[in-house]
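Example record used in the benchmark description.
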Amino acid sequence: MGYDYVIVGGGSAGSTLANRLSADPNTSVCLLEAGGAGKSLLVRMPAAVIAMLPGRPKINNWGFETVPQAGLKGRKGYQPRGKALGGSSAINAMLYVRGHRADYDEWANLGCDGWDWNSVLPYFLKAENNEWGASALHGGSGPLQVSDQKSPRDLSRAFVKAGEALQHRHAEDFNTGDNEGIGLYQVTQFHDAARNGERCSAAAAYLHPVSNRPNLTVITHAHATRIHFDGKRATGVSYRVKGGDQRVEAKKEVILCGGAFNSPQLLQLSGVGRPEDITPHGIEMVHDLPGVGQNLQDHLDFILAYKTRDLDNFGLSLRGGVNLLGHINAWRKNGTGMLATPFAEGGAFLKTSPDLERPDIQLHFVIGIVDDHARKLHLGHGYSCHVCVLRPKSRGTVSLSSGNPLKAPAIDPNFLSDPDDMERTMKGVRMTRQIMQAPPLSDYADKEMFITGEPSDAELEDHIRSRADTIYHPVGTCKMGRDDMSVVGPDLKVHGLQGIRVVDASVMPRLIGGNTNAPTIMIAEKAADLIRGVDHAAE
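Model output (structure tokens):
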């Protein structure tokens, strides 16, 4: 059976695009998603992310690993990615962050016409239903519900006050285009009465409400295995479901929304990319496109953690378990309490040098001890703070590990291959420790974990190489632009091919200075208009 558009991947971009394209009753859309429906209690209850993120077992999570990282003492990094409708927005911390206006102006300067801040802001607004209401900087009627946190802990407020005591400015809103400062994050969380306090994943926002449209077909547990071409035109997609192979035809376009790992992998499995990445696996070349799988960028993250006697946070203790029962009732009754938390309640965008144009590090303050993506648990209670460099210079790759489409790709972020990334990380860690050791936050501290005293540069570098890993923002592997290493143009059409686009975080030419979920939804909103504009022009 054929459809006008076949979308591969039902994550943040795919859910958005499926909604917008199928809004036209004369347009038929088929969405293929390798995971499930993304409607379970584990997805809807924000704090239940702790059961999904570690990937043990893999619940709504691809649970990828990197190849051994020379910059991390040969360790393999962990790369959780959402595997359900809603994608990583089903398992993330729900933080609503756009990045800095200069990030998008930089995209435009790199040849991505129409992707500057002033051009993309309307699409952020179109997506957003902020409980603050509509304004010049926020949308009030979009599908994606954005709210203040329901019950932020006093611990998180103490983090903000500690930063202010050190003369970091207070940020009431991280999404004005200038995100410098310290404050509490807004989150993608329902604020209407019916679902108050539930996670608002991209699927809950865009896809689940329109799943009964007769012109929209959603196939879950469908793992895409190959894009089919007639010459240079994409004509359809093969996928595996329940152990059997199926094929769906695309009358107009195949649209890849698999993300920074799965989209380049599917292109390579289909013969599009660099010959040296494809032909050794016995796959016939369709199109030599050297940028596929190159330009991988990600936010490397280092975590500081502290033990506390305070019990108003997540921890492993008998008293904490008893307290949690009350929070369960509060969340079930009115969507409040600690189970409504994004965990990363406090945040900051700071400059490691005052002469910088924009912040170069980001902090995530977490109301629990985080060690190895919550895969290593510690008795007692505590809190943590993530530190990441916002615009890393290191570049990595995604390539095939096998010609078997069910095998995970080979992911090589090449972390800390550029020495500037280590230098900025060290500066960021030292700045963050100053905040963590300042009152009133210091009043909560019992002892610092992992680091003692004031480490030398050599000792701190060793700590970072021993413990740092991703904070889940991979982008860039099908980058947008006009140079020889770009994969798609500003219209998101794949260079040199017809009937195929990429619409997800892989098209970002440079990693934005912040979390990537809201920008990915924005990309899909803009892509929908680009696609509809092409159709209308053809008519």
